[in-house]
Amino acid sequence: MPQLDTSTWLVMILSMFMVLFIIFQLKVSKHNFYFNPEPKSTKMQKQNTPWEVKWTKIYLPLLLPQ
């Protein structure tokens, strides 16, 4: 019964890691990164919805006392 030849495994594994590293470097190098990132404000901006202007007696919320 022949034995499995594992003498080339180290070379294959090392070359695979090297190729993956090069591919990763090429992909990362294509991205544009901002030089001075500024933090965005986390405050919620109020959005005007069309139904907020048009309240009538029919559209009053039910939780208000009558």
List keywords for this structure.
transport; mainly alpha; 66 residues; proton transmembrane transporter activity; elongated; 38% helix; CF(0); ATP synthesis; transmembrane helix
Question: Could you characterize what this model shows?
Answer:
This protein has helices at residues 9-29, 50-53. By secondary structure, it is mostly helical. It has one domain (6-63). The model has no long low-confidence stretch (mean pLDDT 78). Its main location: mitochondrion. GO terms for molecular function: proton transmembrane transporter activity. Keywords: Acetylation, ATP synthesis, CF(0), Hydrogen ion transport, Ion transport, Membrane, Mitochondrion, Transmembrane, Transmembrane helix, Transport. This is ATP synthase complex subunit 8.
What's this, in brief?
38% of the residues lie in helices and 0% in strands. The chain has helices at residues 9-29, 50-53.
Q: What percentage of the residues does DSSP assign to strands (E)?
A: under 5%
**Rg measurement, Å:** 32 Å
Distance between the termini: 92 Å
The residue ranges in which pLDDT falls below 50 over 5 or more consecutive positions are: none
Helical coverage, percent range = 25-40%
Number of helices: 2
Order of helices and strands: HH
Largest sheet: none
Overall tally of structural domains: 1
Overall mean pLDDT stands at 78
**Shape designation:** elongated
Q: Give the tally of β-strands.
A: 0
Structural class: mainly alpha
GO cellular component, one term: proton-transporting ATP synthase complex
Membrane topology: Single-pass membrane protein
Subcellular location: Mitochondrion membrane
InterPro entries: ATP8_mammal (IPR039017), ATP8_metazoa (IPR001421)
